[in-house]
Amino acid sequence: MYPVSSRFLAALAESHRVITQVQVFRTDGEVIDLPHQDGAVQVDRKAAIRRTCSVTSPDPSLVPTSPVDELAMYGARLRISRGIDYGDGTSELVPLGVFRLDEVEGNPHLGPVTLSGQALECIVADDKFTQPYRAVGTVVGAITALVVRSIPDAEVVSLIVDTAIGPRTWDIEGDPWAAVQEIAAAAGAECYTDANGTFIISALPDPATTDPVWTVAAGEGGVYIKGTRSMSAAGVFNAVLARGEGTETAAGPASYLQVDDDPASPTYWFGPFGHRPMFYSSATIVSPGSAQAAAELKLRAAKAPNASGNFSSLPNPALEPGDVLRVVHPDGLRELHQVASFTVPLRVGGDFPIGTISAKEDA
């Protein structure tokens, strides 16, 4: 969760005044505080580009009508925030993302105008390889090199223990962002941009050992609105075999089989669920340790959908995918959920649906 004050979290469950901010950073250096009447930021861990946005503004002057306007707007960036005005002269704003402005559409005379954008991962993804690209060294070094290749001033922060990778070459037309994720997997990690537009390399938190960051409870003083619970075996695996064999070196094959070894799990490898392995391979995996890290990361996501939840609460703009929440349903059932996706509205009263990648009963 984005760091906010305890006052902020407490105020979410009370009557409060919502404030939002949308800034446009034009390519000519001008920064515009954008008047807006609607919009939302969508956040989805499963999407290649984790954050996207759409903003509706009454200002028709935003529609480019000349070559100069087009140059200033195409490649511009949006910075979006939502927060609380405490009514005592103080307020607290929480960033929701930094986005490349991809589309401006509307009536140039009357408005309204809709602006759409994607988080900065899209800049790396769109910068396809025009010649073979070879990655070597370590996970953090190789990812940083790919990111700054497209965004020279990008900030890359690693929250993992760095590890060596095997040489890996991508062909012409290859997707650099897909390459970033493949490299990250060699360390059991993933890469994404956070709400500030910083590129983060981190591992998905384990909900079994991670403290909940927020309680979504029904009843008086709670933020719970409605919820559902589901189970499905579709696309669920209970083992991952990660393999790597460096084709550009003399390194021998490295592999590791990670199984669901929790007897209390419904997908227990030795239980009635049976054996349902999936397979992952990459030339970046060069040791049993990196194979194990990749297998553990893939399995954590592969077995998660066996129990999932979708619920709505009062909006909390500070959430991040991977956050663990404590959910208390109206009947008293307590669960731990790990956040997969959510949508933050830019208007008062907007719904705040949260999708999860796992749900477990909370003792």
Short description:
With 363 residues, the chain is an alpha+beta fold. It has helices at residues 6-12, 67-73, 121-126, 139-150, 176-185, 288-302, and strands at 17-25, 31-33, 38-44, 51-57, 77-85, 91-106, 113-119, 133-135, 156-158, 168-170, 190-193, 199-202, 214-217, 224-230, 239-244, 254-259, 277-281, 308-313, 324-328, 334-345, 353-361.
Proper CATH architecture of the largest domain: Beta Barrel
Number of strands: 21
Percent of residues in β-strands: 35-45%
Proportion of helical residues: 10-25%
**Distinct helical segment count:** 6
**What is the domain total for the residues?**
4
In N-to-C order, the SSE pattern is HEEEEHEEEHEHEEHEEEEEEEHEEEE
Look at the structure and give the mean pLDDT. Answer: 87
Rg to the nearest angstrom? 22 Å
| Helical/strand content category | alpha+beta
Shape label: flat
Q: Sheet with the most strands?
A: 13 strands, mixed
Q: State the end-to-end CA separation.
A: 23 Å
**Poorly predicted sequence stretches spanning 5 or more consecutive residues:** none
What fold name goes in the CATH topology slot of the largest domain?
Answer: Thrombin, subunit H
Report the CATH C-level class of the largest domain.
Mainly Beta
Indicate the topology.
Blueprint: H1 6-12, E1 17-25, E2 31-33, E3 38-44, E4 51-57, H2 67-73, E5 77-85, E6 91-106, E7 113-119, H3 121-126, E8 133-135, H4 139-150, E9 156-158, E10 168-170, H5 176-185, E11 190-193, E12 199-202, E13 214-217, E14 224-230, E15 239-244, E16 254-259, E17 277-281, H6 288-302, E18 308-313, E19 324-328, E20 334-345, E21 353-361
Parallel strand pairs: 9-12, 13-19, 15-17
Antiparallel strand pairs: 1-2, 1-5, 3-4, 3-20, 4-7, 5-6, 6-7, 8-10, 11-12, 14-18, 15-16, 18-21, 19-20, 20-21
Helix pairs in contact: 4-5
